[in-house]
């Protein structure tokens, strides 16, 4: 079962209609600030799967018969360059992966995307969450905990800012009907999955994972671990209720890990993040959000300099077009959704 935004109800998950969100390579995906250039010609490039107490597990020779994981420390020369799950790391030293060996990360390959958050909306200091993801699966529960559109909006903004395609799954639809909640996201052209106890859309979501790196985000308690375990049976992510106030009962590790999704149809990467409580957007650039709405971005080229594109901006070309009836129903709905997202952060 699926709900798709916009005016057309499409049955096909594969279909991604004209009015859907466009993402593009992130212009801001920052370059690793490695000053020292490859004195390390023997370095091999591997995928950072996770980080635990300063030790990185890195997958070498991915998809080759000799694929294996090594444990690596970061070279001192990297200084404070963040290395995160999903990074392509340049590794030297003992890369056999044999018991007790430790290799060294001497650099990271330029990222194609970078998902980050700030401590809050005014904080420009960003925390890097995941590198090189091209999709974000936002997990929200129909009830217990109650879905909050504002939180979903914030995830959407973070995804669009990073040039990552957002997808949405509503869990616990056995407990409540999510239609009213979902109507808030009309106009985004968002692919939406519905999940219920005993009826998890494993194949449908799985089909979207193949060939992609998909970061899973959601508030704790929404059933994200349950879903990850269904998609990746070997994952063994701890599930269970977490007290939201004290955080007690949290036996899930607090780190972000890459897990491999495998089906007869292909493979992909699931990047599971710990339940994120706050998702500050202090770093977000409104131009990146606008750019995801291709056809509206074109109209906005006629906006006055520094236009906020918000509903109260009288000279905004988008508002003028809407008032002149030039946008049509879909266009107006998309403009509303864009303006809502623009209002979710201070930028
Ligand atoms: P996480 O904190 O997001 O990883 O959530 P968990 O996967 O640990 O799930 C939290 C609780 O919700 C657990 O008790 C699950 O059994 C329960 N749960 C997960 N999915 C569903 C669902 O679709 N329906 C119902 N009724 N409960 C669910
Ligand atoms: Zn404008």
What does this molecule look like?
The chain has helices at residues 149-162, 179-182, 202-209, 224-231, 286-291, 294-299, 317-323, 328-343, and strands spanning 2-4, 44-52, 55-60, 68-74, 88-93, 103-108, 114-118, 126-131, 135-141, 165-171, 191-194, 213-218, 257-263, 266-272. By secondary structure, the protein is an alpha/beta fold. The strands form three sheets. It has a seven-stranded mixed β-sheet with strand order 1-11-10-9-12-14-13. The chain has a five-stranded mixed beta barrel with strand order 2-3-4-6-5. It is globular. Bound molecules: guanosine-5'-diphosphate (GDP) and zinc ion. The site of guanosine-5'-diphosphate has 20 residues, from helix 4.
Please provide a brief summary of the model.
With 347 residues, the chain is an alpha/beta fold. It contains 8 helices and 14 strands.
């Amino acid at each position: 079962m699926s709900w798709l935004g916009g005016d057309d109800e499409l049955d096909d998950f594969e279909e991604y209609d004209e009015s859907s969100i466009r993402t593009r390579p992130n212009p801001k995906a920052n370059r690793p600030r490695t000053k020292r250039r490859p004195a390390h010609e023997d370095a091999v490039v591997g995928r950072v799967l996770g980080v635990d107490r300063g030790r990185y597990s890195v997958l070498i020779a991915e998809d080759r018969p000799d694929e294996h994981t090594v444990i690596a420390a970061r070279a001192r020369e990297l200084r404070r360059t963040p290395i995160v799950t999903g990074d392509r790391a340049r590794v030297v030293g003992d890369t056999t992966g044999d018991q007790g060996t430790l290799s060294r990360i001497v650099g990271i390959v330029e990222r194609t995307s970078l998902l980050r958050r700030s401590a809050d909306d005014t904080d420009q200091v960003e925390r890097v969450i995941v590198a090189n993801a091209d999709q974000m699966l936002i997990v929200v529960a129909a009830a217990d905990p109650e879905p909050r559109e504002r939180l979903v909006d914030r995830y959407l903004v973070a995804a669009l800012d990073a040039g990552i395609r957002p997808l949405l799954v509503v869990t616990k639809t056995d407990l409540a009907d999510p239609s009213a909640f979902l109507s808030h996201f009309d106009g985004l052209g968002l692919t939406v999955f519905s999940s219920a106890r005993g009826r998890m859309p494993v194949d449908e979501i799985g089909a979207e994972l193949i060939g992609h790196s998909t970061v899973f985000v959601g508030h704790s308690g929404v059933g994200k671990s349950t879903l990850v375990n269904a998609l990746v049976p070997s994952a063994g992510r701890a599930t269970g209720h977490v007290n939201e106030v004290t955080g007690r009962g949290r036996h899930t590790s607090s780190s972000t890990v890459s897990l491999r999704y495998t089906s007869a149809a292909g493979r992909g990467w699931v990047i599971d993040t710990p339940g994120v409580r706050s998702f500050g957007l202090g770093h977000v650039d409104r131009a990146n959000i606008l750019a995801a709405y291709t056809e509206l971005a074109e109209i906005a080229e006629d906006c006055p300099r520094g236009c906020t594109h918000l509903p109260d901006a009288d000279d905004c070309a988008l508002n003028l077009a809407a008032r002149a009836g030039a946008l049509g129903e879909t266009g107006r709905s998309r403009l509303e959704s864009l303006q809502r997202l623009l209002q979710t952060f201070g930028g």
